Amino acid sequence: MFKVLTYNNISTAGLERLPRDKYEVASEIQHPDAILLRSFKLHGVAIADSVLCVGRAGAGVNNIPVGDYSKKGIPVFNAPGANSNAVTELTVAALLLASRHICEAWAFANSQSGTDEEINTAVEKGKAGFAGTELSGKTLGVIGLGAIGVKVANAAIALGMRVVGFDPSMTIDSAWQLSRAVEKAQGVDDLLGQSDYVSLHVPLNDHTRNLINPSRIGLLRKGAVVVNFSRAGIVDEDAVIAALEAGKLRGYVCDFPSNKLLGKKGVILLPHLGASTEEAEDNCAVMVAEQIRDYLENGSIRNAVNFPEVVVPRTDDTVARLCVANANVPNMVSQISSALGEANLNIIDLLNKSRGEYAYTLVDLGDQVPAETLVKIRTINGVLSARVI
Questions:
Q1: For 156-214, how does the pLDDT look when each residue is reduced to its tens digit (9 = 90+)?
Q2: For labelling alongside 320, which of 71, 207, 346, 389 has CA 20 to 30 A away?
Q3: Whole-angstrom Cα Rg for the chain
C-alpha cells in the first residue's frame, strides 16, 4: 500500500487515478511515499525520509524547494500543458480587455444613476473616452512557445493578428503544433521592436527575472500592451509604471496584484486566475497523479522538473527493477553494474539518462536483489537514492 500526503484540495478526477486498493491518500498521514499539492509552500517544511517523489498539480514549482529535493534523489513532477487552454483563453481575454478599455468602460457604465433617459444621455456622451483599437492587423509578440505560448500564438493568428515568437529552447512537439503563419524573431529585443502587444509565457528563473525592464520597454512600439500570466518577477513593475505614466505603454495586464500596481492607470489586475477553471484543475490533477503512480509502481519518470525522462517497458522476464537516482558523474553505471554482478544478478535491460547535475538509472533484473546489494549500491559515492520494485 502506497501512502500519498496531500497539502491542498486535489481534484477528485486526479485522486480517482490512485486506486484505493493500492493507495492511501490523506491530508494527515505518517511515512508518506509521495506528496501531492497545488499551491502550498513547501519551503521550510520538513518532509519525511520516506518520501520518494513530489507532485505539483500545476505547471510552476516555485513553491517547492526543488534543489533540496534533487540532492535527495526525489523527482518533482508537474503538469506542463494541462492548464494551457485555461491560460490561453484568459490571455486572449486580456488582449481584448486592454485593447477596448473594457474594465474602465464597465466601471463607467455601472457608476451611472438617474432615469433611463439620463443614463442613456450620459453613456452616449461619455463613451468616446473609452474608444479602443482592434486586434486585427496588430502585431503580437509571444515570448515562450511551450504548450501555452503556442496556443496563444495560434489563437492570435485566428483573430487576424500578425504574430512573432521567440523561444530558444522550443521543443519539436511545440513546433509541430505552431501555426506556420507565426514568424520567428531573432531574440527578445528583435521581438519587442516589432510588437504592439507582448504576451509572456516563460518560467521565472535567473535568466528571465526582470526580462521586461526599462531598456526593453524602450524597444516596444509607443502605446504597446504587455500581458503577463507567467510570474510577477518576469516584469520590472517600476519600469512598467514609469512607462505607463510616460505614455510609452498603454496597458499592463497581469495575474499578480501588488501594492505598486494597485490603482495605477492602465493596469488591469486579476487574482491569479490563469489556471482557475474546473477543467484545468482536473487536467493537472489527473496528469500528476498518473505520473506519481507510474513512478511509485514502475520507477518511470515523466515530466519531472529535476530529473530526465526515463521510461522502460517491463518484460515478462523481469523479476525486480532497480531504480537509482545519482549525481551526473563518471563511472556511476559501472559501479552499479559491478555491485549487481558481484551478487550474480542478470541484467535484462538498463537505461541511464542524465539531465544537468543529475541522472537516473533503471535496471531490470532476472532475480530479486539481496538486501545487502541494495545497501552497497546506496553507499556508492554519488548515489542519491536507490530502491527496488
A1: 999 999 999 999 989 898 999 999 999 999 999 999 999 999 999 998 889 999 999 99
A2: 71
A3: 25
Same domain, 94 and 188: yes
- Contact assessment for residue 242 and residue 212, using Cβ atoms and an 8 Å cutoff: no
Residue type, 135: L
Q: Which CATH number belongs to the domain containing residue 378 in this structure?
A: 3.30.70.260
3-state DSSP assignment of residue 352: strand
Q: Which residues contact residue 210 at a Cβ distance below 8 angstroms, ignoring those fewer than 6 apart?
A: 233, 234, 235, 236
Please give the residue range of the domain that contains residue 313.
308-389
CA distance 250 to 346: 67
Residue 81 has pLDDT above 90, yes or no: no
CA atoms within 13 A on the CB side of 213: 8
> What's the number of domains the chain is made of?
3
Residues 250, 315: one domain? no
User: pTM of this prediction?
Assistant: 0.81
Quickly count: other Cβ atoms within 10 Å of residue 130's Cβ. Answer: 16
Q: Is there a single domain that holds both residue 113 and residue 183?
A: yes
Q: How far is CA 19 from CA 104, 201, 293, in A?
A: 50, 35, 10
Residue 228 belongs to a domain with what CATH number?
3.40.50.720
Q: Which of 222, 217, 223 is nearest to 235 (CA)?
A: 217
Per the CB < 8 A criterion, the answer to whether 51 and 33 are in contact is yes
